[in-house]
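Q: What would this chain look like folded?
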Amino acid sequence: MHARRAGGSTMKRKQSGMTLTSFVVVLAVVGFGLYIGMKLFPMYQEYYSVRTAMKGLANEAGSANMDPSKLQDLFFRRLYINYSENVKKEDVKFERIDGGWRMKVNYEVRRELVGNLDVVGKFDTSQDMIGRGVE
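A: My prediction, written as structure tokens:
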């Protein structure tokens, strides 16, 4: 509805808001952001599975006295349960520390993003295995 002036003419009001073009642009940016999030989320979910497996193994009774090959076997069993696919045996290293072992996991995940562009995640974490408990 238009407001009437004293002289009988109508006064036009300026409309404000998004045009269809700007709405499509915003929708495309949000969609691309969600697409990138869908590509990155599994990489970080797997990283947190690796961290959880390492912490659980560190808290296991007698982990400080276990052989590195036994620790590695138990670690990969935990990862298998969490469907982790990117960590390989050569990515896991052990070094002797006072009272146990330090487990280091250093791996890379590469996912296709768009066309010939990839997104790469490099993950490097370590955990001291000094858990002593009743076996």
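The chain is about 40% helix and 30% strand.
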